[in-house]
Amino acid sequence: MSYRNNLNATTLPAVSYLTALARYRHLCFNLVGSDLRARFRRSRLGIIWAVIQPLGYSLVIAFTWAVVLRYESYWEFTMYLFSGLVVWEYFATVTSTSMDTLMRSGGYLRQARIPLLVFQLRPPLTTMAVAVFGTIGVFVMLLILGRMPEPGLHLLGVPIALAALFVFSIPLAVLMSIVGAQFRDANHIVQLSLQALFFLSPIMLPKEVLDQPNLQLLNTLNPLSPLIQLFRDPIINGVWIQQTDLISVGIWTLVLALCAILASSVYGRRIIFLLS
Hints:
Elements: H1 2-23, H2 25-39, H3 49-69, H4 74-97, H5 101-104, H6 106-111, H7 116-120, H8 122-144, H9 157-182, H10 186-199, H11 207-210, H12 216-220, H13 224-237, H14 243-267
């Protein structure tokens, strides 16, 4: 009997939390819709900018590098950049916007006992909608250039890569929201770190460069490397996603999830008192 009572005591809080998440799911979706409308409000092209922006960056960067480094395959390098920037934009946007997620939601949190995760899911969901359109843009450009990957089961790796990216971003968003509410100066450190990470990831750099022995440790400690490779393999390389990359992303997601659970248990609802 005592064992059953202890079991209920440990399971009921989790069940009640999931029930609360389900109850406020419409609020989460409405906030995501509001973010998308605000981002593309009064824009004639709307969410198409999710394609134009990374493509524009790719064209400019590829032209510069093609002139400086004398690349012969300009369009191949452009698509290499484009595919990397889709993942990078998702990662960087989730990381930076999550910093003030709870700050912007203080009004809701002070009025009702809403699970923090309802608001912490806001950046990953909003940005994933943009990333999906960016992915469509990559396929459209490949079609225009006549470089579409061969049809096959490897293309199923694209939704798997996007799903892995989304799951990875959830504990990341939770951590960043807590850090942003607790330490207001952290945003400046994060922005500087993101700039450094951009140049240390296989976005512009060929993967072979980062696979060199002297950079192997740096590449291993960079979660963006397997995330970008997961996305590129089925689209750009026309092969099935590599198991090692999937395992690496899984390990990173697990580590972030444990850190997010620990941070949430330490600060809990007390973090609401910082939202002023």
